């Protein structure tokens, strides 16, 4: 398992995009000011991503006003794994709190499952649907 993304779930996507792209001048790897999702190169193998907050809430079928999570999903830590299903099964067996079972997110090009850590932070494990060739 390797940390592949830190994903900020933002309320004002356009302003955040401009901040990271124009002010911090991070190279854009994917997305634009209107795409509601973008990835930036931060000089390491782990990338920074921003995602319109409602997009993630819709994808996980959660409500941004969940009383159990007063600041629900402002951040997601994303780990790339070899086998999402096997890793998810092991995490559940070891006591991890699963939010969403493994499924294909074809629009995102990944298979992913979602969990929460003991403090409620969102964790995603994923792997590409189409293996990347070296």
TrEMBL record:
Protein name stated in the entry: VOC family protein
Xref: Pfam families: Glyoxalase
Gene3D superfamilies in UniProt: 2,3-Dihydroxybiphenyl 1,2-Dioxygenase, domain 1 (3.10.180.10)
Highest taxon above the source species: Bacteria
All copies of domain VOC, residue ranges: 2-128
Native species: Nocardiopsis coralli
InterPro entries: Glyas_Bleomycin-R_OHBP_Dase, Glyas_Fos-R_dOase_dom, VOC_core
């Amino acid at each position: 398992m390797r940390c592949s993304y830190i994903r900020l779930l933002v309320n004002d996507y356009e302003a955040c995009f401009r901040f990271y792209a124009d002010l911090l001048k991070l190279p854009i790897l994917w997305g634009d000011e209107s795409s509601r999702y973008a990835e930036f190169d931060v000089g390491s193998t782990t990338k920074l991503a921003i995602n319109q907050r409602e997009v993630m809430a819709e994808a996980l079928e959660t409500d941004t006003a969940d009383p159990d999570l007063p600041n629900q999903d402002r951040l997601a830590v994303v780990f790339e794994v070899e086998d999402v299903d096997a890793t998810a099964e092991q995490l559940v067996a070891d006591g991890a709190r699963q939010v969403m079972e493994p499924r294909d997110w074809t629009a995102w090009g990944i298979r992913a499952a979602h969990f929460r850590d003991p403090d409620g932070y969102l964790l995603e494990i994923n792997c590409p649907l189409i293996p990347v060739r070296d």
